[in-house]
Amino acid sequence: MYQALYRKYRPKNFDEVVGQTHITATLKQEIDSGRIGHAYLFTGSRGTGKTTCSKIIAKAVNCPNQHNGNPCGVCDICRGIDDGSILDVTEIDAASNNGVDNIRQLREEANFTPAVTKYRVYIIDETHMLSVGAFNALLKIMEEPPEHVIFILATTEVHKIPATILSRCQRFDFRRINTQVIAQQILFVCQQEHILIDEDAAALIARLSEGGMRDALSLLDVCRSNARSSDVENAEYITLEDVRSSAGLAVSDSLFTIADAVLKQDVPAILREIETMFQNSIDFEKMCVQLISHYRSLMMAKALKTPEEFVPGLVQDTEALSEQAARYPMGQILYSLTVLQDTLTRMGKTSQTRTEMEMAVIKLTNPSLDRSVDAILARLSKLENQLKNGVFTPASAAAPTTSAPVSPAGEAAPDTAPQKAAAPAASTVPEPIPTPSKKEVVVFAEWPQVLESLRHSNTALHGALVNTEAYRYQEIILIDCDDPFFLEMIRTNDYAKKSIHQALIAGSGRDWRIGPFKKDQYQTAKKDDPMEDILSSAQQLGVDISIEN
Fold first, then answer.
1. CA–CA separation, 547 vs 439, rounded Å?
2. Of 383, 269, 256, 289, whose CA–CA distance to 329 is shortest?
3. How many CB atoms lie within 10 A of CB 429?
4. Coil, helix or strand for 244?
5. Domains of the chain, first to last
6. CA-based angle 52:56:62, to the nearest 5?
7. 428 falls in which pLDDT band (50, 70, 90)?
8. CA distances (Å), 530 to each of 63, 238, 446, 527, 533, in order?
9. How far apart are CA 74 and CA 64, in angstroms?
10. Taking the model in full, what pTM does it have?
11. End-to-end CA distance of the chain, in Å?
C-alpha cells in the first residue's frame, strides 16, 4: 500500500525536525539531563511539527538507548511506539473525544503503572476542543500527577486553553517554517523519491504551504500524481505549471493582467480574464486569495525600498511587482485589499463565487460606485498621483472664460446688456500681485538618528521616509517627503504619528510637533556664521553663553 510522503518522511528524532531548532534543542537538553516535565503544551499553526515532537518525546523518555536526548529508533520500545502496539503511549483526538467521561477514563488509567515503558505518555491533540467539564477533570490530575505520567497537549488555538491549564505546562510555540527551508526539504524528498522537479516549482509549493511542512508534502503528492514522465530513467518530472494546475491556481501573468486592467479601468479586459479562468476551472475563492496576496505584495513593494524579505517569490515576479507598484497609488492598493477581503468573506456564504468576483473587480475599477471612506481615500490618492505626475487637468482650466451668444443664423448676436465705459489704456495693465514672504527654517540635524530609530520601530514608515530631509521651524519639525503614502498616514494614522514622535524623542532627546514641509511656504535660512546653531541649541537647553572678542 502506498504511504503518503508526509507520513513516510515524518522525523524519527529531534535532529530530523525542520525549522524548530529553538524547541528541539531545549527538549533534547531536558531529556538528556533527566529534568523531564510532567506537562508540555505545544502550540502553533498546522503542519509545523507539534504531534511529531510529541511522539519523539514519548520515545525519548522511554528509550533504553537514548543518546543526547534522541531516541535510538531501533529498539522494541521505539518501534512499538511508532506502530502503536505499545499501549502505554496514548494519543487522544480531543475533537472527537472531548467529553468529561473521556477525561475521567484517562484519569482512572493514569493511576496504573505502565506495563512496558518507564512513563505513561498521554498526547492530547487539538486540546482546545475539550469541553469545560473535560478541562476541569483534566486540571485535577495535572495538579498532582503520578510520577510515571507525562501529558503533552497540542493545539492550534492556544487562546482557548484555560489559564489554569496553561500555568501547569511548559509552553513551546512552534513557528511557521521558513519558505526557503521548506523548498530545500522538498528538493531533498524529490531526490530520495527519484522525482525531477524545477526549483521554481519547489519554491511555489513552499509558498503555498504557508509555513506548514505537512501541507507542502501533501501538495507534492498531488503534483506527483499529475507529473509527466521524464526521459531520464522514466523518472517523474514536476514543472511550475504542474504545481499551479494541481493547486487550482491562476497563472501569475493573469494576476498582473488584472491589476493592470484595474489601474486602466479596463473592465472588458478583466471580465475576459475571469471568463478564461472559469473555462479552465479555476477556483474563484483561491483566485481571490491570490489577488489579495498580489495586492499585499504591491503594498510591500510600494512601502519598502527592498521588499524581497517580505515578498518571497521568483526573481522575475519581484521585479515585475516593483514596476507595477511604481504606477499604483498607495491609497488605491489599500482600497483594493479592503474590497477583496470583503469579497472573500461573502464568497464563503454563497455558491455564486464568480458573480462575487466580477462585482469586486468592477468596484475596483470604479471607486465612485462605493461610498465608503476607503473608496473616497482611494479616489483622492489617485487624484494626488495624477497631479504629482502632471497628467490631471481641471475641467475649468480648459473651458473658455466667456462666450458670445450665437444667433440661429450662426452669427454673433448683439449684446443687449448695458456696456460699461471703457477704462483708460493705462489701467488695463494689471498691477503685480505682491509675493508673500516665505518663513525661514533650519535643517534638523538630528534627522538621521530619528530615521535610524524609526527603522527598528516602524519598517513601513521608515521605507517611505528614507533619503528625506527635515527642517525646524520654531517648535515644529517639518518633514520634506512627497510620498502620498506618508502624507496619507501622517493625516489619518495615529500609530504612524506616535511612531514618529517616539523616534524624535529617541533621536533628538525631546518631542516636537510635526508637519509636512511645503516648499511654497518655507525656505531654508542662509546662515553666514556657524556659531548661530550653537547659540540656538544652548538657549534651548538653558545654557548661558557669551562671546567675547
1. 28
2. 383
3. 7
4. helix
5. 5-174 (3.40.50.300), 179-247 (1.10.8.60), 252-380 (1.20.272.10), 439-541 (3.30.300.180)
6. 150
7. very low
8. 76, 68, 16, 7, 6
9. 11
10. 0.60
11. 99
User: Residue 464's closest CA among 299, 253, 317?
Assistant: 299
Cell of 156: 492550534
For residue 115, CA distances in Å to 120, 147, 304 come to 9, 15, 60
Q: Report residue 169 as a C-alpha cell.
A: 505546562
Cβ(154)–Cβ(123) below 8 Å: yes
Cα(437)–Cα(433) distance, rounded to whole angstroms? 12
- Cα dist. 51→55, 104, 114, 219, 261 in Å? 6, 23, 21, 20, 46
Beta carbons of 369 and 339 less than 8 angstroms apart: no
Condensed to tens digits (0 to 9), the pLDDT of residues 211-264 reads: 899 999 998 988 888 776 655 556 788 888 888 777 766 566 788 888 888 888
Most confident of 192-196, 239-243, 465-469: 192-196
Measured distance CA(401)–CA(422) in Å, rounded: 20
**Quick check: 481 and 464 in contact, CB under 8 A?**
yes
Strand 39-44 vs strand 170-174: parallel, antiparallel, or unpaired? parallel
On the question of pLDDT at 513 being above 60, the answer is: yes
Per the listing, cell 535660512 goes with 525
Q: How many CB atoms lie within 10 A of CB 14?
A: 25
The string of pLDDT tens digits covering residues 264-285 is 888 888 888 888 888 877 888 8
Residue with cell 513551546: 172
Instruction: Give the bridge partners for 39, in sequence order.
Output: 151
| Summary mean pLDDT of the chain | 80
Is the model's pLDDT at 165 over the cut of 80?
A: yes
Q: How confident is the model at residue 409 (pLDDT cuts 50, 70, 90)?
A: very low
Indicate the pairing of strand 476-480 with strand 469-473. antiparallel
pLDDT higher than threshold 70 for residue 334: yes
236 beta partners: 195, 229
**Which range has the top average pLDDT, 75-79, 275-279, 394-398, 521-525?**
75-79
pLDDT, greater one: 1 or 166? 166
CA 134 from centre of chain: 36
> What does DSSP say about strands 469-473 and 170-174: parallel, antiparallel, or unpaired?
unpaired
- Of residues 125, 148, 143, the one with CA closest to residue 51: 125
Cell of 271: 471580465
Cα gap 516→484, rounded to integer Å: 11
